[in-house]
Design a protein that fits this description.
Elements (H helix, E strand, L loop, with lengths): L1 H5 L22 H4 L1 H18 L2 E5 L5 H12 L7 E4 L3 H14 L7 E4 L6 E8 L8 E6 L2 E10 L2 E8 L3 H8 L7 E5 L1 H13 E13 L1 H4 L10 E4 L2 E3 L10 E3 L2 E2 H10 L4 E6 H7 L2 H6 L6 H15 L8 E7 L18
Parallel strand pairs: 1-2, 1-4, 2-3, 4-9, 9-13
Antiparallel strand pairs: 5-6, 5-8, 6-7, 9-15, 10-11, 10-12, 14-15
Helix pairs in contact: 3-4, 4-5, 7-9
């Protein structure tokens, strides 16, 4: 999975084939509506006021979210000294540079692209759909044994092959899961590892992560016996990762309980966990819409439609979750109601 996503020049995220938006492989919240970025900018501004720090975006996709956040922070006179983007894909970095140059040319000078995390960071650190883009381990419970599912080449084609778990860290993580055979699911050691590292780097401020997923009890529910691994190709969702390797996205849902555990073990303080819909409503997304002239249908109707997609339980509102770690004396406005930490 790591190879088909990140192999230099060949992986989905490194070869320049990833496509965002309605005509692409999948749609992310920043492409749905600019209101998403405006709410996130307001949350960032609160943290920046308390820390006098910077902004660090992890994996900026097309650059649409960075452009919208910079524009809103500028409007609110809350621009940080630096807006840093950690982006390992040169193809995506070039796309982000083009997007920012087109949409906020006067603010591009504040943006720095990083090849690695800084040793320490103060301010607002965030990632939208970053954790789900990390490789996972597939685990199989069958015939009284717990196996790791891997990939082999069989007669010139890829095929699944199971073997006994050989990694002690993976074995320990699997041991904490109560699953009854036959059962297939995933564990993302990479997501937990990244979260722990980010919390260690964060000295003062907030780490906020947005993604689709569940807490452990729902993630490993008996009825979810086939796991969550899925692929995206030109708006089609399917479960065959051997179809067009390197050309399609391969992903899995996020286990937010594991993310919270990794963060707390690394010294992070859990500040909130809620649905995307609740976070956006708490952050004032309806106020942004209300500030648009309803008689200007060309502007108002797309914003209203986007708000519906972002917050509806039948769309992105319930499946996507928001979780935050760090320190913020006044708490975070995005979590002032609808807390779901009991579900972790």
């Amino acid at each position: 999975m790591e190879q088909v996503l990140y192999a230099p020049g060949l992986g989905y995220y490194s070869a320049g084939v990833v496509s965002f938006g309605l005509k692409g492989d999948f749609v992310t919240a920043p492409e749905v509506s600019p209101l998403f970025g405006r709410v996130l900018a307001r949350q960032a501004a609160q943290v920046l006021t308390e820390t006098a720090g910077d902004v660090l975006e992890l994996g900026a996709g097309s650059g649409a979210l960075a452009a919208e956040m910079l524009a809103q922070l500028h409007h609110d006179q809350s621009l940080p000294r630096r807006y840093a983007i950690l982006e390992l894909s040169q193809a995506l970095r070039e796309r982000q540079q083009a997007t920012l140059s087109e949409r906020v040319p006067e603010l591009v000078s504040r943006v720095d692209w990083l090849d690695r995390l800084p040793e320490t960071f103060d301010g607002f650190m965030f990632g939208n759909e970053v954790l789900d883009a990390l490789p996972v381990k597939i685990i199989v419970w069958v015939d009284g044994e717990i196996m790791e599912r891997g990939v082999v080449s069989l007669e010139g084609r890829f095929a699944w092959e199971d073997r006994l778990i050989q990694d002690d860290v993976l074995a320990q993580a699997v041991g904490a899961i109560d699953a009854q055979a036959p059962y297939v699911s995933e564990i993302s050691l990479a997501a937990s590892g990244l979260t722990a590292t980010l919390c260690q780097v964060l000295r003062k401020g907030v780490l906020l992560l947005i993604d689709y997923g569940f807490g452990s009890r729902e993630y490993y529910h008996p009825q979810r016996s086939s796991g969550t691994l899925m692929c995206h190709y030109r708006q089609h969702v399917h479960d065959d990762p051997f179809f067009l390797p390197g050309i399609q996205d391969v992903t899995a849902h996020v286990n937010f309980s594991a993310i919270a555990e990794a963060a707390v073990d690394a010294g992070g303080e859990l500040m909130g966990y809620t649905s995307q819909a609740q976070f956006l409503i708490n952050g004032g997304i309806t106020d942004f819409l209300a500030g648009t002239n309803v008689e200007d249908s060309r502007r108002y109707l797309p914003l209203a439609s986007g708000l519906q997609i972002l917050t509806s339980p039948a769309e992105m509102g319930e499946l996507f979750k928001v979780i935050a770690f760090g320190k913020s004396p006044g708490g975070l406005t995005g979590f002032r109601s609808g807390d779901r930490t009991r579900q972790l």
